[in-house]
Amino acid sequence: MTDEDKIRNLKQLKDIGNINIDNDRLILYVINLLEEMKIEPTFDKTVVTSFKLFPSRFSLIGFAEYPDGKRVHDCLFHCTYKPKNWLSGNAQSGYKITEKGKYFLNETNKILKGEINLGKTYSIKVKRKELTFINLLKKTSAFKKFSIGNRESITKEEINESLRVRGDSPELIKKHIEKYYEYANIINDLEVLDFLNFIKKKIKTG
């Protein structure tokens, strides 16, 4: 079966008219589904897949039987540029979910399953906790050196301190990095996300 046939056979996911979720998150869901189906998420395939899964969101006004490519294009634009950076790639090469985008993909899956709601209560509740941990990270010597461009002098011990890790456990370090990614994504702190990307590369090369 060709990629086109696989997409043609897709069915509407479900009626999401009453679900509080934006179109950008739905595009993340679509890109991930195409990747899981081993289909390259090019622009055309993303347009058709979005329409097949969520016709109420991605159809032309007045012509509900046709997909709205402009609407999908706008979502892809939002997701590939700052401050979101949920996706990388372009219309020709296809799109890929970034590390930052993976957090919001996980959130999207929970929203569609009815596990969480993007209401004001949820948003306010999570920001207090995450902001506290991010502020503590920013006070560490590793982050301060990173901020002023003195990256080469950051030691392994300082990295562990910034992640609140005692000892030398690769599993624990990985777990804490993932948790800080989650916190930084929630409050959209791009500088901390850059710092975490730096740490991941330094650990691999060190």
SSE pattern, N- to C-terminal: HHHEEHEEHHHHHH
Count, helices: 10
Unreliable parts: 120-126
CATH class of the largest domain, named Mainly Alpha
Q: What's the N-to-C terminus distance?
A: 45 Å
Strand content: 5-15%
What is the molecular shape? elongated
**CATH topology (level 3) name of the largest domain:** Arc Repressor Mutant, subunit A
User: What class, by secondary structure content?
Assistant: mainly alpha
Q: What's the domain count?
A: 2
Major sheet strand order: 1-2
Rg (C-alpha, Å): 20 Å
- Give the helix proportion (percent range): 55-70%
Query: From the coordinates shown, what is the CATH architecture of the largest domain?
Result: Orthogonal Bundle
The total beta strand count reads 4
**CATH superfamily descriptor of the largest domain:** Winged helix-like DNA-binding domain superfamily/Winged helix DNA-binding domain
